[in-house]
Design a protein that fits this description.
Blueprint (H helix, E strand, L loop, with lengths): L2 E4 L4 E4 L2 E2 L3 H5 L11 H13 L7 H7 L2 E3 L5 E3 L7 E4 L1 H4 L22 H10 L3 E4 L18 E5 L6 E5 L4 E4 L5 H14 L5 E5 L17 H6 L3 E5 L2 H7 L5 H12 L31 E4 L8 H4 L2 E3 L5 E3 L2 E7 L9 E5 L4 E3 L22 H15 L5 E3 L6 E2 L1 H27 L4 H7 L4 H4 L11 H13 L14 H11 L3 H13 L3 H18 L7 H20 L3 H16 L2 E2 L3 E2 L3 H6 L2 H11 L2 H4 L4 E10 L5 E10 L2 E5 L10 E6 H9 L5 H4 L6 E4 L3 H13 L14
Parallel strand pairs: 10-11, 11-12, 12-13, 13-14, 18-19, 23-26
Antiparallel strand pairs: 1-2, 2-22, 3-21, 4-7, 5-6, 7-8, 8-9, 9-10, 15-16, 16-17, 17-18, 19-20, 23-24, 24-25, 26-27
């Protein structure tokens, strides 16, 4: 089966089967996608008339500027199976034309089932190929021979861009995409069209997988084995790249299926654009660990070993393969570890993902920790103060560049102000006593930001970002006493439907509201109807009222998807509709992390993950102490780390102070490789089965009792079902 990779998670899974068969759906029009309703047509027409489609088309010029080569189609096979495709734009090219030269936005050529603003975003994201970045009236033509310091990008070969800077001995590569195959294809493209050079350095701007996962596709096996190419990353990169989704990875992965539309058809009624790019590649992301870390200025204590492995930020002497760079650390903005890069020799500014041509997420809809828009805005002010007077081109890891100093500074100010506005006005309304839901309903942008294309909500939205700000400060509780200990969804649904006169009456009223185009209300009501009926029905497949409720909710979510400007909002609505019509996906092989990520996990990360898998009921009244010694740790292969694990009060704790318990119930000793084998196979029972040659040794005063204890401990840990219900209870 084809695999999909869920962005920023490092999660690969085989595309699953759907409960309803294709034949069943084709033979019943109720289960099929519907056309845009009159209400959707009216709303989308209003969008077309309210935004500056006719007067501001500079983005189409910028997205084409510097183009060197655009292939007729882009289809990249897997490196391990030529029958599997890891990146394919051809399905999108069937209905989205990247080569349109005439400004294309008018009512005649926008699908009725797509928000016109999102359609504009899709047209721009489809402008793929090899581009020269540092090109304007003062620079040579894009096709001229590359000079040291010249900057190129390959765009449209993954969700993110890959950037190449010509160094003295080779290409310095920024953010090598998700998949090794897409990164390798981009390297082949620039070597063919510009100059054939090896990769001399790799720089990760931040800790999300679409900015490091393809690094192995750029290097030879010898380079990887010998660690001969420097890999530069911001301080904290490894910890965050490995751990961000370990704890909540299962839930985030399931919700990412909704957010990125990975199971949706590529057509006018399905996936159109992901906002940041078209979609994500599907190769197995790797992780080459950094060899150099960018740290705050003044960090170097004079220790020679430390100094050899760090670069200080905010200096103009950071030469990498002959290119001077100034790194600006921006922790806690779009990612917990992130940095921008200034090129003083060309007055070029790499913005990582701190600015893109859309409003970004303060809280990503797949789930994550809430970001800090106030800190984000302050770092952008620092960027302006540092380089605003000198910058001639800014470019980043998504979308297209911008040239000309005045335009760039206006862009930076509005990018900064969209996050500052969202923060300040949400907090202002919060202090007036409004809840997150109320704030999101009344907060509106000033015209200067509302009518500015790079601050439109193609990825994040003002509505869900303002609620994220409320959550950051106030948490889940909105202050109303009735919400302090409110009923769970099924109980609420049962009572709502009974109070409203029963399901038949609710359906009758909801259908009228649907015809009136009151889709947000219909979605709210029919959510209760589906939860009520599904929870109380023994034979769901044959219950006409349940089927009618699901299909009405599906039709409603579909219209909301057609209206959505945000790519993730569209995907979430349409995936919900798909599952209501066809059933929850079934099957599919899940990998909660790629092999490279597993190898990079520390024992502490493993123990933290095991702790959240511990089933409290199964661990009730148990009291165990286990000493664990890890051998052959680190590069020297002679390091040892010791831990004591305890299970007591239905909680797993561990100590890493190096003081092993005096009288443990058992002791385990294992190599780092054995730990990797256990994690890669997702099988704790390997502790029982691996012998000394396999790297695990168990010692106890009572071996028979120790085996019983191990078996008991292993039985306490839950396995997570990836395909848990979302639109049904």
């Amino acid at each position: 089966m084809k695999k999909i990779t869920l962005l920023l998670l490092g999660v690969s899974l085989a595309i699953p089967t759907i409960a309803k068969t294709k034949l069943e759906i084709e033979n019943d029009p109720r289960y099929q996608s519907k056309p845009a309703s009159d209400s959707t047509l009216t709303l989308n027409k209003a969008v077309l008339e309210s935004l500056p489609f006719k007067t501001d088309n500079k983005d189409f010029t910028h997205a084409e500027k510097g183009l060197i080569k655009r292939s007729a189609s882009v289809k990249i096979p897997s490196s391990t199976d030529s029958n599997v495709t890891v990146w394919d734009l051809t399905d999108y090219q069937k209905f989205i034309d990247a080569d349109l030269k005439v400004y294309p936005i008018n009512s005649r050529n926008i699908p009725s089932t797509v928000n016109p603003s999102l359609w504009r975003n899709a047209l721009l994201n489809m402008k793929h190929g090899l581009y020269k970045v540092n090109i304007d009236d003062q620079w040579a033509a894009a096709t001229d021979i590359a000079k040291t310091g010249d900057i190129y990008q390959v765009r449209g070969y993954d969700l993110s861009n890959i950037t190449f800077v010509k160094g003295l001995s080779g290409w310095i590569v920024f953010d090598p995409l998700i998949s090794p195959e897409t990164a390798a294809a981009a390297l082949t493209l620039i070597n063919t069209e510009v100059e054939t050079l090896p990769v001399s350095a790799i720089i990760y701007s931040h800790s999300h997988v679409d900015h490091y996962g393809g690094a192995k596709g750029l290097l030879t096996p010898e380079q990887i084995k010998n660690n001969s190419v420097h890999i530069v990353a911001p301080e904290g990169f490894t910890e965050h790249a490995v751990s961000e989704n370990v704890i909540a990875g299962n839930a985030m992965g399931r919700r990412a299926v909704y957010m990125y539309g990975s199971l949706l058809a590529r057509d006018e009624k399905g996936s159109v654009s992901g906002g940041l790019g078209m979609t994500t590649s599907t190769g197995v992301a790797g992780l080459l660990l950094p060899t150099l870390f960018v740290v705050p200025k003044g960090t170097n204590s004079g220790n020679a070993k430390v100094a050899a492995n760090i670069i200080e930020a905010d200096t103009d002497t950071d030469k990498i393969d002959g290119i001077t760079m100034n790194f600006q650390l921006t922790p806690g903005t779009e990612a917990p570890a992130e940095m921008n890069t200034w090129f003083p020799d060309t007055n070029a500014l790499w913005m990582a993902e701190n600015t893109t041509n859309t409003l970004h997420n303060v809280l990503t809809l797949r789930g994550a920790e809430v970001r800090d828009p106030l800190k984000w805005s302050k770092f952008l002010t620092q960027t302006i103060e540092n380089w605003g007077s000198k910058v001639s081109v800014k470019f980043q890891s998504h979308h297209w560049p911008l040239w000309e100093n005045t335009a760039i500074n206006d862009y930076f100010e509005k990018q900064r102000d969209i996050y500052k506005f969202t923060h300040d006005q949400s907090v202002r309304l919060m202090n007036h006593g409004y809840t997150g839901e109320e704030i999101s309903e009344q907060i509106t942008l000033p015209a200067s930001l509302e009518n500015n294309w790079p601050t439109r909500g193609y990825y994040g939205t003002l509505r869900h970002n303002s609620r994220a700000v409320y959550q950051r400060y106030m948490g889940w509780y909105d202050g109303h006493p009735s919400d302090l200990n409110n009923l769970p969804p099924v109980d609420v649904a049962t009572r709502y439907i009974d109070f409203m006169g029963g399901l038949e009456e609710v359906l009758k009223k909801a259908k009228k509201s649907y015809r009136d185009g009151d889709y947000r209300w219909v979605a709210e009501v029919m959510k209760h109807a589906v939860f009520y009926k599904q929870a109380t029905t023994k034979n769901a497949e044959a219950d006409d009222l349940l089927i009618a409720s699901k299909l009405l909710l599906a039709d409603t979510l579909e219209q909301l998807g057609y209206q959505a400007e945000s790519g993730p909002w569209r995907s979430i609505y349409l995936q919900g509709a798909l599952e209501l019509r066809q059933g929850k996906p079934q099957g599919g092989a899940l990998e909660t992390a790629t092999p490279d990520t597993i190898v990079a996990m520390t024992p502490e990360m493993l123990f933290d993950y095991l702790a959240i898998r511990l089933n409290a009921d199964k661990a009730n009244a148990k009291d165990y102490t286990v000493n664990v010694t890890f051998t052959q740790m680190g590069d020297e292969k002679n390091e040892t780390e010791e831990y004591t694990l305890t299970i007591k009060n239905s909680v797993l704790n561990y100590s890493s102070e190096g003081r092993l318990a005096n009288n443990p119930d058992l002791s385990l000793s294992m190599t780092k490789q054995a730990l990797n084998d256990i994690q890669l196979n997702h099988d704790l029972t390997l502790i029982q089965s691996i012998n000394n040659e396999g790297g695990v040794e168990m010692t106890s005063d009572n071996p028979a009792k120790a085996q019983v204890i191990i078996k008991d401990i292993v039985s306490m840990f839950d396995d997570f079902d990836f395909w848990f219900n979302i639109v049904t209870p």
